[in-house]
Design goal:
heterodimer; A: mainly alpha; two-stranded antiparallel ribbon; globular; B: mainly alpha; 9 helices
């Protein structure tokens, strides 16, 4: 085996930089791997909520990846899943307490979704598929990259929903009657009526559905060009197909 | 507020108005993944009702009699997730050994529920909404019933969608997510019951 395998963007595999870009671009958890949909839908009512949820997840992801990677030779294979859960849950509790102490408003806005980072499948997925098999440094940067990729995606989704649904960007009124932009541009922007369904629950589904259709299209185009599209997942954890009663067992 | 009407309020609130999937976005994975056929959707719903009701009872008892007296409430996330993972395993083994028919209808869905955010979410919401144990169990049951209602409706719609001519890029998950969005619009109608 050639040690200098090529990874994301043609960089040498498993170096910190390669891991970083792999998470942010090549294997972006939201758009490419389609993982962690619950927080993606729930907290993207505004860009700032998306950003803070993303950063909280990044923190947990990087540190749990680091610790799990350091402990990978100590943890017996049979009890690895409970062990990962304990490590992840400890960091989530840490974030939860820090946010309650220093950012009470944000903690209020994100509510139950902060402790629910525990069951975010990105974190568990990275622990299982990367951190438990690689050294501490690449695992840590894998967490940072994946976390920031997730942050980027949900901030952009939040930005879109906020702009269409309320006419604001990070809480600053840009579109609609109360726009802060003056002059002729401002009077044009004032004509916009916010479509409030986009900040409601239904809007989350509509935006995500559109995003997924877009990714499907990109995947098809790449497939036509003959590129390898195996890394794209079209549903992540959503495509669990249980062996149904009456069907043949052992197919899965 | 008398107890019965209070419980009834929780029942309607959690099953319809604050529907767990369509309004709180919990349990999306099984909602989108196991809704291809009505039969499997109902099976999944049954398993969820069973596990969530049991988990809210166990977590409620644990919180009240162990975490609160020992002043360890900040550990609730860690404790709850481990208890739920253990509980699901235990229920699976128990059903396999003693209640064979129930295991055959629910068994395949149980492993999928272990890390379902709806189960942990309900346990945590019971604590943050300061429900007592009875209210917590009713809330868990109602949430799960709400899940069953919405996944069954979605599965019914998906069985029909399967025969439609959908643009290539929208096939698969995207159209299901959009369908869920339209259902969410319909479910906002329940907010007048509030």
């Amino acid at each position: 085996m050639d040690n200098r395998r090529k990874g994301a963007l043609g960089l040498a595999a498993d170096t910190p930089l390669e891991r970083f870009f792999n998470g942010v671009i090549t294997e972006n958890p939201t758009t490419v791997l389609v993982l962690g949909m619950c927080p993606t839908l729930a907290v993207t009512t505004s860009a700032i909520n998306g950003l803070s949820m993303g950063l909280a997840t990044t923190f947990v992801l990087a540190l749990s990846n680091l610790v799990i990677s350091l402990l990978r030779k100590v943890i017996p294979d049979t009890v690895r899943i409970p062990s990962f859960i304990v490590v992840i849950a400890s960091f989530v509790t840490l974030v939860q307490l820090l946010m309650a102490a220093y950012l009470p408003d944000l903690n209020e806005a994100l509510g139950v979704y902060i402790p629910l980072i525990v069951v975010n499948c990105i974190i568990f997925g990275r622990a299982e598929s990367y951190a438990s098999k690689h050294g501490a440094v690449p695992a840590f940067f894998d967490g940072i990259g994946m976390g920031l990729g997730f942050t980027m995606s949900i901030t952009i989704i939040g930005l879109v929903r906020e702009l269409i649904g309320a006419g604001t960007v990070f809480g600053i009124q840009l579109l609609g009657e109360d726009t802060i932009v003056g002059g002729a541009v401002g009077s044009v922007l004032a004509l916009y009526t916010p479509v409030s369904i986009f900040v409601l629950q239904a809007g989350a589904f509509l935006v995500l559905g559109t995003l997924m259709a877009l990714m499907n299209r990109i995947r098809r185009k790449q497939e036509e060009k003959g590129k390898d599209v195996s890394k794209y997942k079209s549903g992540g954890c959503m495509n669990v197909d249980p062996v149904l009663p009456g069907e043949k067992e052992g197919d899965k | 507020m008398s107890t019965i009407s209070g419980l009834l309020g929780i029942l309607i609130m959690s099953s319809l108005i604050n529907n767990v999937v369509l309004s709180q976005f919990l349990g999306l994975c099984p909602f989108l993944g196991v809704s291809k056929k009505v039969d499997s959707a109902v099976g999944m719903g049954g398993a969820i009702v069973f596990v969530i009701t049991l988990a809210s009872a166990v977590c409620g008892l644990l919180y009240k009699f162990i975490l609160l007296p020992l002043d360890l409430t900040y550990l609730n996330t860690i404790v709850f997730i481990l208890i739920i993972a253990m509980l699901v395993q235990f229920v699976e083994m128990f059903l396999k050994k003693f209640v064979k028919p129930l295991y055959e209808s629910l068994g395949v869905y149980l492993p999928l529920i272990t890390t379902n955010c709806a189960v942990l979410g309900v346990a945590l919401l019971n604590v943050s909404d300061e429900y007592n144990i009875i209210q917590g169990i009713v809330n868990g049951f109602a949430t799960a019933v709400g899940f069953t209602i919405s996944i069954t409706i979605l599965a019914g719609i998906r069985e029909k969608i399967a025969y439609n001519d959908i643009p290539e890029s929208w096939k698969g998950t995207p159209i299901v997510v959009i369908t869920a969005g339209l259902m969410a619009i319909a479910f906002t109608g329940f907010s007048v019951l509030r």
